[in-house]
Write a structure and sequence with these properties.
Blueprint (H helix, E strand, L loop, with lengths): L1 H19 L98 E3 L6 E3 L14 H13 L4 H12 L5 H14 L1 H12 L3 E11 L2 E9 L4 E6 L4 H7 L8 E4 L11 E4 L1 H14 L4 H22 L7 H21 L16 H11 L1 H9 L8 H17 L5 H19 L4 H9 L11
Parallel strand pairs: 3-6, 6-7
Antiparallel strand pairs: 1-2, 3-4, 4-5
Helix pairs in contact: 2-4, 2-13, 2-14, 4-13, 5-13, 7-8, 8-9, 9-10
Length: 457
Amino acid sequence: MLLKQNEQLTQRVKELEERLNKNSRNSDKPPSSDGLKKRPPKPKRIRDKKKRQPGGQTDHQGNTLKMSADVDETIRYECQSCQECGHDLSEVAGQIGRKKQVVDIPKPQIIITEHQAIEKVCPCCHAKNTGELPKHLTGNVQYGSGLRALVNYLMIYQLLPYERTTELLGAIYGISPSKGTLYRMLQDGYTQLEEAEEAIRDAITTAAVIHCDETGHRVGAKTRWLHVASTKLMTFYYSNRARGGIAYQAGDVLPHYKGVAVHDFYHSYLKVACEHALCNAHLIRELKRVIERDPSQQWANSFIRLLVTAHKMTQIARNNGKTALSEVALARLSEKYDVLLAVADQLNPKAMSNRKRGRTKQTKTRNLIDRLLTHKMNILRFIYNFNVPFDNNLAERDLRMVKVQQKISNCFRSELGAEMFCRIRGYISTLLKQGYDVFHTLTEVMQGNVLIPIPAE
């Protein structure tokens, strides 16, 4: 009895120590969870060290300012007299000896445009005729499309809260719209972009490869989940109270999707009826944690090297214009995968139990091994299909700023506020991915001319 209790307590201590030692470098915990304490040590380098020195490389593309042929203002500096003998040079023609250019921004100013409906009286029948004002002029005095586009960009993409947006506009332009006015500007963008959001969502649903992820966020006093489904050229966000299947139905992307969905090991994704590719960056962090828990588990180190090597092989093949690895290379990688898991399986046998009901609790290492055995094809899909990436970094990048928004503003005040954020930010992200002029396009949106940014096949 005492021996059994001792074993249970020892196991409990090990689990608690494991939990304390988790950080963003060896688990799926986000960097924000590390807090302000001393950063965890960097893991030992798995990849081969490169011979290049730190800093800018000789072949990298620089961003140095270049001389422009299109100059807005020219200032000439002339000598009025000879610097040697003092002779008058004011009437002497000269040529450019040296020139330098300064790139600056103009002084910010607001432009007030008055729209006048002119009345004319017909000299024949004496009827009064009045010119028709544009329909978007709804008030006697209102803010224009350029300012409304800027507010949408600053608040949704650059994540400025209401007070700082008002402060910035006051400092630069001398205008201070109220919070209610700013909110109505966001509502305007949200309403105008409804059709564009639907088109982006439908296009992502038919894409060959998509990236999926989710992160928690606060709406009022409740926790909800902000989901993303994205490609290299499009981004679609949606907010839902659920994390798994219910949310996928509401998002209306995954229920209809038949391509390859790249995601982490969250179990709900694996229930979607499509092909799957699992994030190997997550997997590598878990394997590093295995080594930290037990340095004798060297199979994990070898498995990391296998994944990194496979990734490098696909990159080299892709850069050489190939569309697939050779059959020999694929067979070797697959065989190595099986050999390493056989070693891992032998070192970490499944725990047995005499209980008749329920599954026996396994160690985290054993659970990881079972996942590696079950999802071999999903883990290695990137070596068979070069359109499939090695990791899910794209979706994680698309979601990263959501956590920044939560740190700045703490929460969304309402579900509508979260939906407005998702729609407008998804549209701006899509524009940026496709290289559009964001400010010009948003200005057009505020005038009712909405660009539907669906890339050609």
